[in-house]
Amino acid sequence: MTDQPLPDIRTDVPHGARIWNYWLGGKDNYAADREIADAVSATFPEIVDMAFKSRQFLNRAVRYLAGEAGIRQFLDVGTGLPTMQNTHEVAQSVAPESRIVYVDNDPLVLAHARALLVNTTPEGVTKYVDADYHDPARIIEQAREILDFSQPVAVMFMGVFGYVPDYDEARRIISHVVDATPSGSYLALWEGTSTSEAVVRGAQAQADLGSPYQLRTVDEVAGWFAGTELVEPGLVPLTQWRTDGVEVGRPEPIDAYCAVGRKP
Q1: How far is residue 258's CA from residue 179's CA, in Å, rounded to a whole number?
Q2: Which member of 3, 56, 57, 178 has the greatest number of CB atoms within 10 A?
Q3: Alpha carbons 230 and 250: distance in angstroms, whole number
Q4: Residue 22: what pLDDT?
Q5: Helix 46-66 crosses helix 87-94 at what angle (to 10 degrees)?
Q6: Domains of the chain by start residue, with CATH
Q7: 4-53 tens-digit pLDDT
Q8: Of 210, 134, 209, 217, which Cα lies nearest the Cα of 177?
């Protein structure tokens, strides 16, 4: 686990990316993060499985987008700390010329991104944008330096809106970014859902320790895809989106819903 703080990083204040890193078995977290992570997993043990299932969905979605959908540009907003099979690694393994822009504004994420999120193919491009997703105009402005917004882009928001209390604010962010992309672009997104008493108790435990996470209803997550055409099988739990038979862990439905939608 990280013992020496990096510049400008508040190690005494819990951070969502580092909490998630701990659940995934990573070492880039601090005592404040681990305290919350342990409290939530004590109340809702399934959160650890959810962390891994969310990464598996990301991998399947990117493989689909780079493969069947033919997408060559990816905008991964709120990417978090580098972990297993990151977006650029998956995309460039399918289509070596893929261009990936990661977006986050956490200094620890930035430090690791600069070191680890490096191109895996000579044909492709992998870059990191230091920006807050509450400022989508800045994201688009900087992403345009890497991505061609006259060609389809896959916009990704992977479990990031639990830290946005206001539902309409999250919808504004999504709409601003997706509206900047042309027809044939895609939105890939998952979010934790209030679909069981256990997950609600886990979210309450996290809020009680100073790191609130806003669960959404399934209908609320569906609303974020308004204006897109959902790829089969539509909006489903993480464990039910185009599984490929090599998943690790339990196959049961989980309290997080996901989808991939195409912009007509």
Answers
A1: 20
A2: 57
A3: 25
A4: 85
A5: 30
A6: 16-262 (3.40.50.150)
A7: 445 567 777 777 778 878 887 888 788 888 988 888 888 888 888 888 89
A8: 134
